[in-house]
Structures
1.
Amino acid sequence: MSDQQIIDSAEPAAVEEAFVIEARALTKKFGEIDAVRGIDLTIPKGRCIGLLGPNGAGKTTTMRMIMGLTRPTSGSVTVLGEEASRLPRSTRARIGLVPQDNNLDPDLSVRQNLEVFGRYYGLLPAEINERVPQLLDFMQLSQRAKSPVMGLSGGMQRRLILARAVIGNPDLIILDEPTTGLDPQARVMIWRQLLVLKNQAKTLLLTTHYMDEAERLCDDIVLIDNGRILDQGTPRELIRRHVKPQVIEIRKPLPRHLPLSQTEDLGDSVLLFVDDAEAVIRGMPAETSFQHRPANLEDVFLRLTGRQLREN
Amino acid sequence: MEALLNRYTFAVWQRNALTWRRLMWSSLASNVANPLIFLFAFGFGLGSVIDTMQGVTYLAFIVPGMMAYSAMFAATFETTISAYARFKMQKTWDAMLSSPLTLAELLTGELLWAACKGMISCSCVLLVGALWGGVPSLLGGVLALPVLFLAALCFAACGLAATAHASSWEFFSYVFTFWVTPMFMFSGVFFEVARFPEFIQILSWVLPMTHLIEVIRPLATGGPLALTAVLGHILLLVVLTALAFTLAHHRLRRRMFD
């Protein structure tokens, strides 16, 4: 069975909403701490949106409010046309969550983890028996179906959580750091399956600390920090808006007469953001040690959120 | 109030039953061995100095007490220590609430499962007690089981209310010291409540366990039962269950969604 068939077997949603998620002036206070300070967000159907920000920026809280798992202090958020804090079961059944923690059921096997969740999603026994092997296959876990969850590698646990999140064939999948801590092979595998889901017109909302992941998967990026949106747009738009297109990293000591309008000091070297890299390189002495690359999302991220460490 | 006995509640029950099935034999073995040890010690120990109590052999007197105690202990353990592990350590409840399950369904499923564990436990006591010759009215002993189920729901709900307020494992030492142990000592498991001084008797009748034993002991020993008194005891258990469940739900709602 191909990946295509697995996802296509669902009936289409009864109502087509213009926006899958609409948040207005959303805030959340935990005691004295302002976790979210006013977020407006509209996410159209079938898009993959990346929520990027340093630790403690308010990403997870925002996602939990969208799922109705945390009650907002003020503001409103509607999901699939329903108010998030009062989602009816039929709407909740259309949302799948990949949480940040691996909260798989350690008392159950790989297959049982999916079967149990299928029942939570209201699937009938026949549907569960059909769907669980498909999902195990989709996530390449068929060989481990009977294994206890605790024996799985980190990558396998993550794959199982993703399989669990889509057991109810959701229209909206929310992923909180789906690949954190995984080796490159496991990340590539998860990316591939996320792209399969995306091609099925599912709406994806994900957080990540990996800028390459965000650039690869997301149509739009929402950069948040201190509970507020700093900027949003496609990765290209953000790069164009906030940094010059070319980056030259030069080891210190710096040669003289460089165009130092946009720089970042990294300690033993300096990042130079320029429009025309060729011209700058031609003007440097031959012995200068440097590297040249196009600007990327990480440059934007660090420019907007600063370089100081976030201990959290 | 939404319907709480639906297939989602049952799905939660099933999840717990699945994990129990893996350890079924060791669990059943201890459920059988525990009353055996108690009956052996108290039957031969105290039984040799006490001829009869309330007109029956001491063995026949303590079997229903042990049934009540084992149901109470199993149901309480399940919704305190075990449930807290699912709630705080394994984050199983977090995962469950990210599905379409509601908190009320999750808690009802936990409650039903805990009551079933109580039933498994006290049924083993009934079996052992009957084989030992300590159940004068076997029919009465079987009729006691539905009452025990109701009471197990009550103990489970009280345990859940405690878990809803627990901030660490240490909290449960209070539950066992100030709730489980008093019910073991003062609710008539081993002695008639009437033998205690009056101020202790007041404490006894505050504990739901005393009301349970008051109903099931006459059943299992074939003693006289007044219908109005039985209804009164059962009503008390039902009301306490509803109160404890509401408290647990209210508190956990704030803890998990705020």
Note: Chain B has a mean pLDDT of 93.
2.
Amino acid sequence: MFKKIIYFIMAALILLGIAGDWTRVEAEEMAVGLSFIYDKSDKGYRIIGEFLDVSHSNDPQQSQISRSLIMEFEARSPAEALQQNLQLEKALYGTHNRVRFFTEKMAQYGIEPIQDFFFREFYLDQRPIMMVVKNEDPLLLFQAETGLSDQVGGYIYALSRLKEERSTLTTFVTTLDFAKDLYKEGKQPIMGVVEVKENKINFDEDVKEEEEKKPKKYVMDFEGLAVFKEDKLVGYLDGQEAIAYNLISDTVRQAYIAIPVSGGNISIYVMESKSQVNTEYLGEDVNINIKIKTRLAIAENMSDYNISENKELKKAEKDINHFMQTRIKEAIQKVQTEFKSDIFGFGDYFHKDYPKKWKTIKHKWDDEYFAKATINVTVENIIETEGHTRERVGERVYAE
Amino acid sequence: MSDKPVYPNENIPSKATDFEEALKGLFQKSFDIVISKLDTRHKQAVIVFVEGMVDKDIMDRDIIKPLKSGEFTGRVKAAVKCGFKELHTMSEVIKSVLSGLIILYYEGSKSVLAIDLIKWKERAVEEPDAENVIRGPREGFVENVYTNVMLLRRKLKTHNLIVEKRVLGRQSNTSIAIAYLDNIVNKKVLDEVKKRLEKIDVDAILESSHLEQYLEENPLSIMSGIGLTQKPDVAAIKLLDGRVVVLCDGSPHALTIPELFMDSLKNSGDYYNRTIYGNFLRALRIVALIISILLPGFTAAVLTFHHEMVPLIFLTTIIQAKEGTPFPTLIELLFLMFMFEIIKEAGLRLPKSIGSAITIVGALILGDIAVSAGLVGAPSVIIVALTAVASLAIMSLNEFITFYRIVLLLMGGSMGIVGLSAGLLIMLTQIISNQSFGIPLLSSFNKVNKKDNMLRFPLSLIKRRSITVVNNKTKIGEVVNYKGDFNV
């Protein structure tokens, strides 16, 4: 009987020794990082971190809202900057990190060296969203409004969760997504962008002077995408081009897009979108055929078309098809000529269609084959529902 | 010191004076044993009884008056107006006196009459505190073993219900009753129970918990494999399931043997309520079991090792609460758990009126002040309170839960999820390897018993007895299907 107890204690001790998780940290001993800006500096790397700060929350004079603490570190490498610094008195904790920002300088220099740090360090993970900061001064990010959230990290995380499937103007790319694209043959990576802009409000004349004396207010703008070639930033796409990118790469789930047709806009609600890509190899020339099929609903109709009539509806459908077709083509052409970087992953389709040929041309794909490829885009839209009303609201009033 | 009584010999003395002397020699220092000589028209008689244990009115009317009357002919057996038993040895006489019988000695006769007019003050049959029910009978066992057997007989009016008597304890001579249904009981278990009862040779059995500890197989195991109930209807259900019920004089707790793991999670309420609600209650109890064993360990593991599992908003609250408290999470949880155990123990032993005061002081004031004084964080108080409430939902497994809660807390708090898993493995190994009277504790998890295990099927669908304990598939009986009978 007592033997059993001794065995039990021995087993527990052995377990403690060999399986014990020695990374024990109490919650209050951690500095929870929420977002980090990575910048290239003369010394090496400059990292600006946003940390969760609850030190004032027990003070009744202060509001209960947790705030953030901004700290700047500089060293020869990111690991050294974050761990060797003598400013942070608590253990750095990175698994609640939501966003990784890169300055333009950093992104143009190349992300790969720092990517290795993200994957190797045990207190970091691959979930944070990656973004390029367009501004010269990245610290403006922490002066910008953060919506209804307390911190920049939380703001962008909440935004990405809501807008990932509802907006096509950008794409929220996580560290893992970026790495997948970076190491995949036949696809170049992209990243979201953020630009901090002044929040300009047109005040009335009588308060204008007073309001303008107050400190400036900033907002963040996330429209567009950053195009990378290998791990280096080569340029940007705007919001409309980002829609084309999202339609081709099949990431649109629900989205509202305004299409200019004769007389005004028709806003469509994309309920489902599917893209099909196939490639043709015609002796040194590559044809890329893209077919996009969508199921749409009309969200608003401000155009001349009376979509309650089938004929007019078909016309509107045609217009929408044409508009989308040209826009997608334009976007691809921009990438082909300006960036020569296959961010759409056509090379991957070519690899599947012509696996033997791919091996011989893969090194030249972006610069020679993708840049010169002929692109054929066909868009097939089906308007499934016109919404709650068939007629335009107010039409009858006008008729009278 | 020898346990044998000191008297000259086993034979009943032929003279009243000798008989009186022999008994007086034995009981001279006990004031409650009345030994008095009666002069009748013929020879002398001696009457012996324990003060307070007999009905004196009836003794007067049916024994003393007839002996004293002028019509007494000298034939005692004819004169006594109530039932009696004849005793032939002195040791029988002494045992009978101490059990509350009236001893009537008549000079010259070779035997002594033992008359049962036992009447003593006892607690009325009332609802037991620990097993309150909303629906179902409210009577509970009392301290008198005969009353308890009567309560059982009233539930099961069959000749198959056999109640055997044993007397245990060299000094206490406690009556033990072994009850079982002859046609259903598992004979192997019954034989084992009898064998173990025979081996018990101790000074006294004052409570059924003594008995439990002498009967169980592994005194250091955390589960005894023996169930406890204070309710005759629960005991009857156990008997019908092939269990052996052991009653002990002086204890309102009946032992049911064997008690498997799932039995601890079952409750008579499960069967008295309608199927869906009964199942809901059982599921609730299983959830409570998981919470009460795992929650503190899991919390300690997650809050000290795996912060990535905690949502950011909750983590913010935790950091806010822990900011300014001196101890690690593990110590906080341990401290609060011990505090709760102390409050529980204190509240249990005190008179009810003070008990509730202790609860208020302990739970409200101590908990609240500990947080506002910055001794512990509020989340730890919530975790321990939740665990405590959950563990009270399954009182039958109280010892088991309390022990493993602390083990898992220590392992989870020092080794994270790895330690917690290792602790769980140790716990499961122990439950799996434990047996109760030859039946594995987890054996009720089998194909045939599925209708009344984790879930209870409608009673009309449970057509066969569980085979776990009873090794036969006895049909419970044809169940009438009333569907359509009421179409008028």
Note: The radius of gyration of chain B is 30 Å.
